[in-house]
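User
Here is a favour to ask of a fellow structure person. I am asking you to supply a protein in sequence and structure-token form. Please set it down just below, with no commentary around it:

Assistant
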Amino acid sequence: IMAFPGSVQPADPEKIAARTIVLVDDDIRYLTIVGSLLRRRGWQVHEALRAATGLTLIDQIGSKVDLVIAD
């Protein structure tokens, strides 16, 4: 993705309020950085270091999961 200064508009917080992401990666650094960035944008982030844990989170959260990011 290429963006030019002033061409990217910030997300509307009301549109992403209560949006839920499950973030799965075996690298804790990635989880920390990406999770922090998403939270600052208003997302609710659930992190998992293993795929099995990620699947468990998805089962527990259910239909409230809007997006899964996994490596």
Remarks:
- The longest strand covers residues 20-24.
- Residues 38 and 48 are 15 Å apart (CA to CA).
- The mean pLDDT is 85.
